[in-house]
Amino acid sequence: MYELLTNEQMRQADQLAVKAGVPSLQLMERAGRAVAETVIAMCGIRRPVVVCAGAGNNGGDGFVAARLLAEQGVDVRVLTLGDIGQLRGDAAAMARRYTGPVEAWAGEEFDPKNIVVDAIFGAGLTRPVEGRAAALIAAVNRSGAPVVAVDLPSGIDGDTGAVLGIAVKAAHTVTFFRRKPGHLLLPGRLHCGTTGVADIGIPVSVLEIIRPHLSANGPDLWGRHFPIPRVDGHKYTRGHTVVASGGLATTGAARLAARAALRAGSGLVTIASPADALAVNAAASLAVMVREAEGVEGLSRLLEDSRLNALVMGPGGGVGAEMRAKVRAVATDERALVLDADALTSFGENPKELFTILTNHRLSTAILTPHEGEFSRLFSSINKIPSVKQKLEACLAASHETAAVVVVKGADTVVAAPDGRAAIADNAPPFLATAGSGDVLAGLCAGLRAQGMPAFEAAAAAVWLHGEAANVAGPGLISEDLPDALPAVYRRLFRRLDPAPGSKSEA
Fold first, then answer.
1. Cβ neighbours of residue 490 closer than 8 Å, sequence gap 6 or more
2. Has residue 507 got a pLDDT over 60?
């Protein structure tokens, strides 16, 4: 279930399910049942439960959960922010079915020994939480009681993950049919705790009508494009990646990217090195080759060989006019191009120049891999657009502007394509934030592109592999550990994608 649905798309899914013959009351009943089952799984039936019910359908889910928990013998209390008579439609019908105590919250504190079910707002909230609702959420958070959130913690924007003033901090979130971007994007993900997706009877076929453009990043998204080595393959069929190195003092970044490209499966990898760094690059590389490429002319001469089909520019490459000239020189053909670090920073004062280069480089979609600081500098004009509120919208706008795949790195790395698709990662551990890890990611992107993987899928796969390698390496990792952790990741991935390895040929 890798598809992510916006708030509007989820409303459409509900409507399509009803149109297909699933009663809306049945959808609400199943949603509330999933919440009740989660509460019992967490703490059994002996712990008192307080359900905070809002005035919308989220509150209706809460009333269903309250009724089902009470039927199991749980001590249940329902608190509302207003008159229960304000409920309408299915929510009102479910409130009538619940016969237990219902009270308007009077400002009292919550007992930390209780379990709180947050059914106040859900994912559809678009305005800041204020007044008594804000006070109720603050009281829930202050109590320290474990919270089960219905759909999404109240106060979190389902589309962006933003905190709208104040938001519930849940231990567990139960959502329905598919997750929303706000479950994965920060800070929303930090408020969700663990997130479970419940099947409430919405037919999967509705996705064929909705055609969601957002995804959680994982093998289900890009696995069919992933280059699994074939029994009759060899290094020349798996592409040749070039990494442009900087001068003597900054060769480490290029070597990290080169090693990552090789681990990603690129058949051959070459570091294009200035003369003063040749000895260091050669001495520190074994399977990675090193060739002299002095300045713009040297790099251009090296790349006259069309077999060198993927190129990384930027890691430790130096900031300034020479880097801009190199990018202009290499972005004129069909070679897969990955721009990172200094290659992006060099255009910070004139980003339109880079955008023009990239939009003219249409034969092979480039990949840009900025961290959030580099992104802010390069796309400052996009950040000023009133409709661009959060990371996801900004990344999509940048991809459209540049006609490139844009990867905005972070704990919730977003990969966006010019056609409007985007993938959000949630598998990166905090210890991945270490010097040089971005260079490794750039190399992974290029290594996958060298093997023929499309740009969006290659970037998304590289981000996922990056996170998984960090999980394998574990706490205390340094960036050099990441490429060497990949074989363990690949073993698991290949078993998933190709249960009979070696059975296929390159034909």
1. none
2. no
Whether cis (ω within 30° of 0) applies to the bond prior to 187 is yes
Longest dimension (CA), the chain: 82
370, 348 contact by CB (below 8 A): no
Distance separating alpha carbons of residues 381 and 372, to the nearest angstrom = 14
Q: At what angle do helices 7-19 and 24-43 cross, to 10 degrees?
A: 120
Spatial neighbors of 361 by CB under 8 A, at least 6 apart, are: 331, 332, 337, 403, 404
pLDDT in tens, 89-121: 999 999 999 999 999 999 999 999 999 999 999
Distance CA 42, CA 471 (A): 26
| Confidence at residue 78, expressed as pLDDT on a 0 to 100 scale | 97
Distant-in-sequence, close-in-space partners of 15: CB < 8 Å, separation ≥ 6:
none
Burial 101-114 (b: 16+ CB within 10 A, else e): ebeebeeeebeeeb
Run of H or E residues at 69: helix 57-71
Residues 390 and 187 sit within 8 Å (Cβ to Cβ): no
Query: What is the radius of gyration, based on Cα positions, of the chain?
Result: 26
pTM above 0.85, yes or no: yes
Residue 289: alpha-carbon gap to chain centroid: 34
Nearest to 280 by CA among 318, 317, 244, 245: 245
CA-angle at 144, arms to 143 and 150, nearest 5° = 95
- Band (pLDDT 50/70/90 cuts) for residue 122 is confident
Question: Which token pair is 201?
Answer: 């009877």
